[in-house]
Amino acid sequence: xxxxxxxxxxxxxxxxxxxxxxxxxxxxxxxxxxxxxxxxxxxxxxxxxxxxxxxxxxxxxxxxxxxxxxxxxxxxxxxxxxxxxxxxxxxxxxxxxxxxxxxxxxxxxxxxxxxxxxxxxxxxxxxxxxxxxxxxxxxxxxxxxxxxxxxxxxxxxxxxxxxxxxxxxxxxx
Length: 173
What we know:
Pfam families: Cas_Csn2. This is Type II-A CRISPR-associated protein Csn2. Helix content is 46%, strand content 16%. It is an alpha/beta fold. The protein folds into two domains: 109 residues, Rossmann fold (3-Layer(aba) Sandwich); 52 residues, no CATH class. A six-stranded mixed beta sheet has the order 2-3-4-1-5-6. Helix 6 links the parallel strand 3 and strand 4.
């Protein structure tokens, strides 16, 4: 197993996952943070009046719809939070390759959560050497903290510091 070790800042928390699943599995938490940020903006000075008006109009529309229904129907969750959640906030998922998808995910996490140390397992099995070199460059230029763990040996990049841990857990540099 080869381990690529970046400079690690003590203020960073960790997030791990296999490269194909990290973006998919961790999107729920990221979406929650995006929704929370949208809610904060919606009640802020710039949007409060507009959002209050829209919520009142939405509630009025629901009341009108319910008058044609049998039974006493009420709406207890007509508020900014429920309207934003009901909109089904999603992060678009259109990428040319896995490297771009991961970089976009890293950026979103950094903006909406905080700096993290990302563990990427076997990424080089999914990207060509050229794509991997571009990925290394982008990670370095954007200042992300990433630990690459791989079970196969690949050509070493100028941008990586490689440590090899053998089957007896001896570290070979």
